[in-house]
Amino acid sequence: MTSSSARPEGACQICTALRDFQSGYLRTLNARTVQVLCNIHTWMVANAGDAGVVAEVFLRMLDSPLEADLDDAQCDLCRRTSEEENARIERFAQQLSEASHPLALINLWQLCLPHGRKLLGRVPQPLRPSTLLAIGRHTAELRQKLTTLARDAKARIPVRPGLLGRAAEYLVAKRGLGVRKLT
Q1: What is the torsional sign of CA 138, 141, 147, 150?
Q2: Average pLDDT, whole number, for the chain?
Q3: What is the value of pTM for the model shown?
């Protein structure tokens, strides 16, 4: 599900927005602006980009001198996605500061753990307890469901599909960002 309005139960809105951002970036890929791609984004570009544009990007990557140390170069798509992530977290922190019911807003968003932690560092001190409470409730709900799943799996009782994916999404966020670059 790539649309924020059609997100699965418990999906972090920031993660969903970042996936939408990356999809849009791939659809409008500009060969002149891409110099370095990480492993994940190289495959994403290969699978989703316009073939002619992707060929230009890959040719530029092939033209990098063998002596170039690309380990320190950041993937262009990772960098842009990180900038988008920071802007969204900042906007959400601002919305919380201005909201009449910030706890309701946090519950509505159901942030993943990494984005909840990043948000916690940006909300004003008076909102930290509400933010911690909302994230804690989401964590407790997921813990209870995972405990039940583990028990049922051991007893060979059929388990509800999708919960492990939801838990993984909640724990790690930003799939594919920050991985080592292709050299």
Answers
A1: negative
A2: 80
A3: 0.75
